[in-house]
Write a structure and sequence with these properties.
By secondary structure, the protein is mainly α. About 80% of the residues lie in helices and about 0% in strands.
């Protein structure tokens, strides 16, 4: 019951967004404009104000990144092999398929779930995961596609290109600036600090509403079999790998272990679809996976919340 109480507010807002699009009460143009506001303004302000004001402990547990991304890369490779051996995917499709099995929706779904279930202290480990997810996953994904002709200059170009994109991405840039302000010890003028905090309260509900609107645009395809295999890795395999590493291999604080486990059980992130679309890597399968994993993650997240709460 407690797990349901944590998830219900999140689901309710997502469902409202989907319903508004389904019943044509909100046009696609308006939902796209709202999405730009959410991802370019509201969420960056939320990330900035929380990282700038956070108490960054000297005992920051960097192991959380090893735990999460070791498990994510294993899930990525397993999914690629399934795509190659079972579904005869091309190299680009394999890479996108692996991305779908490893890339979590840590921002839109992860932030509200962690806030409701674990409190604001869980945001620091979650933000650590968010800060490098796109960089690691996209560099790895592009490297896989170009592995036949991969040279040192190509690797440098990939990394530099991704770093430039992330540095100009409002979400990543806000995290970097917030951490810099925190470490340097800059105190924000209190009225400005209060205004940013007030503004940031709009980020979570608006992001969930936008997610609902976005899910309406992703249509289920005939790729149910590969999509379900991908989702099984994402919602079952990845959390199991993280659980083993976080609770039985590394000695980290329980709050941090709980946070990384929730992050692993989240649905497929929309960035996986963007990657697939940019690489012609079977975006219909990824789109189907996003929709279905957003529904089925209710069960994976509920199970984990029952375990950790």
């Amino acid at each position: 019951m407690q797990a349901f109480e944590v998830i219900f507010p999140v689901l309710a807002i997502v469902l409202i967004g989907w319903s508004m699009r389904h019943w044509h009460l909100l046009s696609n143009n308006y939902s796209e404009a709202l999405a730009k506001f959410v991802f370019n303004v509201a969420i960056p302000i939320l990330l900035f104000i929380n990282t700038a004001n956070a108490e960054l402990s000297e005992n920051f547990q960097w192991e959380i990144l090893v735990i999460y991304y070791s498990a994510a890369l294993i899930a990525y490779v397993i999914a690629m092999q399934i795509g190659r051996l079972t579904f005869n995917f091309s190299l680009a499709e394999q890479s996108s398929y692996g991305m779908g099995a490893a890339y979590s929706n840590t921002t839109v779904i992860g932030i509200p779930i962690c806030l409701h279930a674990l409190g604001s202290d869980s945001l620091i480990p979650l933000f650590a995961i968010i800060s490098i997810q796109s960089l690691l996953m996209f560099v790895f994904g592009f490297a896989v596609i170009e592995r036949i002709t991969l040279k040192f200059s190509t690797i440098n170009r990939l990394i530099i290109g991704c770093v430039k994109q992330l540095a100009t991405n409002p979400i990543t840039a806000s995290l970097i600036i917030g951490i810099a302000v925190n470490i340097i010890g800059i105190s924000l003028y209190q009225p400005i600090n209060d205004a940013l905090k007030l503004f940031s309260t709009a980020a979570v509900p608006a992001a969930l509403f936008v997610l609902g609107c976005s899910l309406y645009n992703y249509q289920l395809s005939n790729d149910l079999k590969p999509a379900m295999a991908m989702i099984s890795i994402k919602l079952v395999g990845l959390p199991l790998l993280v659980w083993v590493l976080a609770y039985h291999v590394f000695a980290i604080d329980k709050l941090w272990a709980d946070t990384v486990l929730i992050a692993a059980a989240l649905p497929v992130g929309i960035s996986a679809y963007i990657f697939a679309k940019n690489t012609d890597g079977g975006e219909s399968t990824i789109a189907t996976g996003i929709v279905l994993s957003s529904i089925l993650s209710i069960f994976s997240i509920s199970l984990i919340l029952t375990f950790i709460i």
